[in-house]
Amino acid sequence: MATPKFSKSTITFHQDLKQRVGAYFKETNLPRSGNRPLYLKAGRMVLSFISVYTHLIFFTPHWLIALAECLVLGALTAFIGFNVMHDGAHGSFSDKPWINKMAGLSINFLGANVFMWKTKHNVVHHSYTNVDGVDDDLNARPFLRLSPSQRKFRIHRFQHYYFIFTYSLLYLYWVFFTDYKKYVTKRVGMVPIQKMKLSDHISFWSFKAIHLVLFVAIPVFMLGWSQWLPGFLVYSLFAGLLLTTVFQLAHSLEETAFPVPAPATNSLEDEWMIHQIRTTANFATGYKLLTWFLGGLNYQVEHHLFPKISHIHYPAISRIIRQACKEYDITYLEHKRLRMAFLSHFRHLRILGTA
């Protein structure tokens, strides 16, 4: 199966919107990358992670406090992913490439691999959002049915009850299985990964070994298996739950589209930019503290349209995009509250499991 093609633009929306956003940065004289407050936030999150890790492993408190710190460590893992790695991998964290590379490498220390992530996320997910068979983010088979075009199994009747548990497994599955699967098969789903250089192979195996030392060998040596395993599971499951939920609330909803390529031409109905708007939704953008922690990933529409712009600019360019969508009669999807987005996702799963 070849990757589908997008329809050519028959309206000026794409060009017009790019010009409007470009004019904003020209008028404000702002760089499209991050700024000092973002770097300070990133530094605080990384230092907090190191501090909590050190206290847990080398100054282990009472087990109740230790489990609470495991939850904090899981949250910090997700927040570093949202705020540091994500922008770095997209090249928008800084205007200096080497800083972006370092920011992207933060995911390697946390157990995953930035090389594989760039193919899965930057190339595949951002190009073919919600296209079943191509967008690997939709592939949760056989446990979950996330798209109407996917095969339904009897277990899916209950997926709106057990999806939280499935989401919590993502981090463990990602770190200990899917990265290796991509490495061996040399593809993300149906899409081949870029040919790896020797340095990429060395980086892959070196960081996997570093992660095992930091999160398995040292804790087991210091605490023993009986104390390490519960803590590691609490940490990993909570990180997985946060990471998965944030991305699912942006794409797997009642309101979002799941386009299917035309069989005869293998082409999609919309041009790329309109495709992104139809398959993506924002949530709770009025809550600044949530936006701060999520690295602007509640502004998913803005991120999918302009992934090379740092998330610190999303609130500003959101107003530009909303106005353009209004003028071109394009529906801009958004849930004002986190609860509303979560309920929409819940209903989406229930419908796909029972319909």
From TrEMBL:
Residues 61-334 form the Fatty acid desaturase domain. It holds the Pfam family FA_desaturase. GO terms for biological process: lipid biosynthetic process. The lineage of its organism: Bacteria, Pseudomonadati, Bacteroidota, Cytophagia, Cytophagales. The chain crosses the membrane at residues 38-58, 64-86, 98-117, 160-177, 205-226, 232-250. GO terms for molecular function: oxidoreductase activity, acting on paired donors, with oxidation of a pair of donors resulting in the reduction of molecular oxygen to two molecules of water. Signal peptide: none annotated. Keywords: Membrane, Transmembrane, Transmembrane helix. GO terms for cellular component: membrane. It comes from the Bacteria. This is Linoleoyl-CoA desaturase. It comes from Cyclobacterium lianum.
